[in-house]
Amino acid sequence: MNKFRPFISGTKSDDVPDCYNRVRYIRDACKILSDVYKTDKDFLNKSFDNEISKSFKDFRSSEVGKNYRSPYGSNGAPSILNRTIDELVQIHDFIDSKRKESLEQIKKIIEQAKDKQSNIRQTMTEVKENYEKAQRRLETADTNLKKFQTRSDRYQLANYDERSTELEDIRNECEQTRTLTRDIYVTEIYKIASEEHFITQNLFSQYLFEQNHFYNEICKHLSSRIPIIEQRLEDDDLTPSFHLDLIKHCSKRCDTIIAYPIEISIRLLENSLREEGLFRIAPAHNKQKKFVSELDLQLIERSSTLNELGYDPHVPANTLKQYLRGLPNCLLTSTLFEQWNQIPQLNNEQLRLERISQLLKQLPKIHYENLNYLVRFLTRVAEYSSENKMNAANLGICIGCSILYPKDQSSNTYTSGSMILELMINYY
Amino acid sequence: MASRKKVLLKVIILGDSGVGKTSLMNQFVNRKFSNQYKATIGADFLTKELQIDDRLVTMQIWDTAGQERFQSLGVAFYRGADCCVLVMDVTSPTSFKSLESWKDEFLIQAGPRDPENFPFVVIGNKIDLENRMIQARKAQAWCQEKNNIPYFETSAKEGVNVEKAFETVARNALAREKEIDQQADFPMPIRIPQQEEQPKKDGCSC
Questions:
Q1: Quick check: A240 contacting B, CB < 8 Å?
Q2: In CATH terms, is domain A247-426 a member of 1.10.555.10?
Q3: What is the value of pTM for the model shown?
């Protein structure tokens, strides 16, 4: 007993053998599969990945594309975007070639499906027609026999018995033929139905295996390329420093671990220690914006001077504050935020100083060194407080909130940062 | 509005660091000036009672730290302000240019009703200094352009014009309060039609 029920349960009649619907289902499924990639030629010529890599190749050979090279790379080395676009083109070319390979395989499967479908259709039509023809003949012979045997004048006929036997023979012959063709019909149908497993395996599952193979290969390839792309982004020493993590930024600097904006701003202020209200007075807004963008592009040399750049001292001073405020993790670090914040609650200066030096030891090296660099400079500013009026207290108030703030920057805690910075300047 | 309840006006002083916000407040409230150069930390307020015509008003004056231009003081601080005083230093062109962004910052943070007509007062401070860079005419023109903001030139050090400037602050804040009182302070009440009022439809008695 076949344990598989027909897929589509139609009303079974004598004329429709078991499995008939099942065979029809197999046949139509093969047709659908062979239709899926009917337009495979089009598909191969116009694959999505091909289009993408083509438009980027065109872009690369355009005037803009050809002329742009990183201004800092040695000898006009390609910029990060340049190199990433190269990567993008290569990857899409790879996918495109793999897709072509895979489509070749799929095409083979599709052809098999097409053959299978037309075979089934042909066989089915043939055997069914044969069977139906035999059936009709039998019916005619049967009718003829019955008619003859019930003729009203049958008793007058001389050779009645002979003719009756003859008709009976014809009928029996037809019945045999019908049985034979019916057997063939059923056999063929069963044969096709029994192929279901192999058709599923060789065509449909194989199709999915091909797809799987294709995507696996793409996945493998992408997985091998992505880390390179990520690493390149990570290593890019032209990443704008504002709002970038201090440790990330400083680890990329070659001969120092002081952040570029801190180093440049402080170097520029070297001769401005007498400026009244340094770090307090705001500079012209647009000047500061310009200076920030210059720092982000690392356009300013260590040897530059304020005069050459056309800035007053308040520009670098305030930009330095802006840079510190923009760090995702503040100079005194968000990890230690709560501990720093408890310092004002300590009873006397001695306890506070002790706590500060304990916490300083817990700072990451880069944070510590940058803080040290900053405070060393602020100490010098404070030395000139009779002229610039910026004593440690004022500097603490003006800069404290830029070196200690919570991660979300929502609440304002001025006092701790100010007090801590004032103490650090006084006892540097 | 005949109510003679005590009025509290919240006034916020904004402006670049070092223009003299704290000095102005101290001169107005305590009639004192200190030569000490001291940056303000965070924000704090002083109050002063003032007689405006027949009304006694309490001004709650919030002094702010100038560096807060970049680190916003937060919405809560600005909310409910009745008047905003924008201060610049007539010897510092930068502080004059910053007025615009201080004004914007205030309007964004405070989000007052009818921002077009919110009372601002602009003060040009430090007129006692010799190296003036911003002429009164220039400041005046800017104020006129901004919907006629009153402009005062003061010296917190010598106490020149400070009283007058803050009196205008109080008057304008009061005037706005009256206006807002008269305007529907609450949305129009929604009338719920009573059953009897519903027009009866012809031919249906159910």
A1: no
A2: yes
A3: 0.73
